[in-house]
Amino acid sequence: MRIREFTLGDYVEVASVWEQAGITVSVSDSLKGIVHKVGRDSELFLVAEENEKIVGSVMGSYDGRRGWINHLAVHPDYQGKRVGRLIMEELEQRLKKIGCKKINLLIEYDNVKVIGFYENLGYNTDELVFMEKWIK
Ligand SMILES: CC(C)(COP(=O)(O)OP(=O)(O)OC[C@H]1O[C@@H](n2cnc3c(N)ncnc32)[C@H](O)[C@@H]1OP(=O)(O)O)[C@@H](O)C(=O)NCCC(=O)NCCS
């Protein structure tokens, strides 16, 4: 198992892992959106590779104050084999190295079963209301 940075050539494979893992995608996840994302902090967008096949991915970001986790996904055939833990630990190390002190993430209401996974990695829940607005 190897953890490495995402490159644009990985896009189709990573999009397939998102789909297989049930990740909700948006217009921001189009190839154009991902080109934009990679232009900002490519060292925080990671893939897990096994025998040259991408089996997991996470899109991290750092806003200068907090680290954020997006689209953590492990292919269903590889779930429960510590791929999620490995890729998250690598991302945490990278965030720490650039001065990040706290990492945030959001879980959709229909996916609360993953809370245990994040608790296992040391994350706590907080009672907050998430608000959003698409700007055009
Ligand atoms: C959530 C997900 C990324 C976890 O990845 P994974 O590779 O299956 O998890 P791991 O095998 O690395 O698990 C790491 C640890 O958490 C534990 N764990 C995993 N899922 C758990 C759960 N639901 N509740 C409690 N503990 C859990 C494991 O037992 C393991 O413990 P250990 O390292 O102490 O032995 C993966 O299941 C997935 O892709 N799910 C679908 C997409 C998704 O929901 N992504 C998150 C969006 S917020």
Write the layout of secondary structure elements.
Elements: E1 2-5, H1 11-21, H2 31-41, E2 45-50, E3 53-62, E4 67-74, H3 83-97, E5 103-105, H4 115-120
Parallel strand pairs: 4-5
Antiparallel strand pairs: 1-2, 2-3, 3-4
Keywords: Acyltransferase, Transferase
GO molecular function: acyltransferase activity, transferring groups other than amino-acyl groups
InterPro entries: AcTrfase_GNAT_prd, Acyl_CoA_acyltransferase, Bact_Acetyltransf, GNAT_dom
Folded structure, characterized:
This is Acetyltransferase. The structure is a single chain. The protein is α+β, with helices and mostly antiparallel strands. The chain has four helices and five strands. The chain has helices at residues 11-21, 31-41, 83-97, 115-120, and strands at 2-5, 45-50, 53-62, 67-74, 103-105. It has a five-stranded mixed beta sheet. It is globular, with a radius of gyration of 14 Å. The mean pLDDT is 97. Residues 21-23, 72-74, 79-85, 107, 111, 113-114, 116-117, 120 line the site of coenzyme A.
Secondary-structure content class: alpha+beta
Number of self-contained structural domains? 1
Instruction: Report the principal-axis shape.
Output: globular
Largest pleated sheet: 5 strands, mixed
Calculate the mean pLDDT score and round it. Answer: 97
Instruction: Look up the CATH topology.
Output: Aminopeptidase
So, CATH architecture? 3-Layer(aba) Sandwich
Q: What oligomerization state is this entry in?
A: single chain
Strand order of the largest sheet: 1-2-3-4-5
Strand content: 15-25%
Helix-strand string: EHHEEEHEH
Q: Residue ranges: pLDDT <50 for 5 or more in a row?
A: none
Helix content: 25-40%
Identify the bound ligands: coenzyme A
Rg computed from alpha carbons, rounded to a whole number of angstroms:
14 Å
Instruction: Indicate the CATH class.
Output: Alpha Beta
Keywords: Acyltransferase, Transferase
InterPro entries: AcTrfase_GNAT_prd (IPR017255), Acyl_CoA_acyltransferase (IPR016181), Bact_Acetyltransf (IPR050832), GNAT_dom (IPR000182)
Pfam families: Acetyltransf_1
Protein name: Acetyltransferase
